[in-house]
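Methods — Computational structure assignment.
A single polypeptide chain was analysed. Its primary sequence is given first, followed by the predicted tertiary structure written as structure tokens.
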Amino acid sequence: MASKVEEGRDGAVTAEDLPKAIHLTTAERAARGKTARSEVPRASHAALELSDDRDPVGVLDEGTAQRVPELVPIRYGRMLTSPFAMYRGAAAVMAHDLASTPRSGLNVQLCGDAHLANFGGFASPERSFVFDLNDFDETLRGPFEWDIKRLAASFEIAARHRDFNGAQRSAAVLGVTRSYREAMRQFAEMRNLDLWYARLDLGDFAEQLRASKDAKQAKLVRRSAAKARTKDSMKALSRLTEDVDGEPRIVSDPPLIVPLADLAGELDVEAMENEIRALIRLYRRTLQGDRRQLLESFRYVDLARKVVGVGSVGSRCWIALLLGRDSADPLFLQVKEAEASVLEPVLGKSHYSNHGQRIVEGQRLMQATSDIFLGWVRNPKGLDGRARDFYIRQLWDWKTSVDLEAIAPRGLELYAQACGWTLARAHARSGDRVAIASYLGKSDAFDRALAEFASTYADLNQKDFAALSAAASSGRIEAKLGL
């Protein structure tokens, strides 16, 4: 953790800045949940009241001024590929919509963008294959139901995208909400350390599927895991680099991948690379001592801007190539810009002044295990001369995600159950799991309310997609498809 001296330089927050813990008895915590239920009934979460002047395109366009101008049309182009892609990039729109919904008052560390594509598999530091949340750009403390509402709606929208029938869509949506509720009740009974160590291992998940006689889905999970194990820095080296004077350099593929030398123009590239090395030294301070020493065994070689995701397109995202003992010992780091969470206009500012730290601390709290190189840094002077926050992690480390275009109805239902369990575990680590479990109760009242909400929001998302398409056609926004 950074010191008080470092706080002025990189915006770090220390333990002394955080609120003191309050310890209630289990009975008091359960009573808190029941009180919340009486004040905000579970059925009330089906409601969605919107203002007459709601403008989803305007909300989306508010943040474009902070993005790389030439990349903004790519963002809109990716969002216009389908209503589900629109939903993926519209976390800010949903944050505005959720602002008027009933709030339980039971706060947790929110993912802030908990749609189904932001879950997936990756390598743990022990080299096992785990399933977890994997995107925390919007993380902030807030009412637990906001994450589960966004997740439930994503399953409804994804199922519609695949033309699944009503029963199949309902099975997926109710699967995620029921799994969340039942898992939270289980976590409420756990000892604190047992909860902290709980995680979903993909190997164990495949075995559970096989034991339940779902051999087809078990085979798909094992196949996906085997393929993901090949996705690492060595694969990135072969895919993203070329040999230049006996050493690898990142290949230019504009506008999706652009090396620093091509972006610098008339600026002094050598001076900029010296600044990058200084920033890497600052970033090292946010790592554990042993991981800091490991990072120090690599040397910086190259840097490029890389377009990633859907909603993130236009933010400044870089990939850095470092080398260890030789050119066959690469480490690729993703250096991603960290802006204010889309939840902050609604829920208030983060107590972390460095948004890179906000993301990293939220990720470490919500994930069962995190990337060993996860850290943050503030660059006081970027290419445009403006101070910017970044968080850093490995580019590829066995990362895999659901193939929405190929998944079958039964597979989507099982995936929903895994996501519900995982989100409940993340919330149980950061909030009052006993109070939340008490609030949710044993019946399916909350499940049914969220299923109704998900259906209503999917209808709304379809209208938003049409509005974005119309905005592109009229010239209100510029969209580039196919990138």
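Note: Residues 1-9 have pLDDT under 50 and may be disordered.
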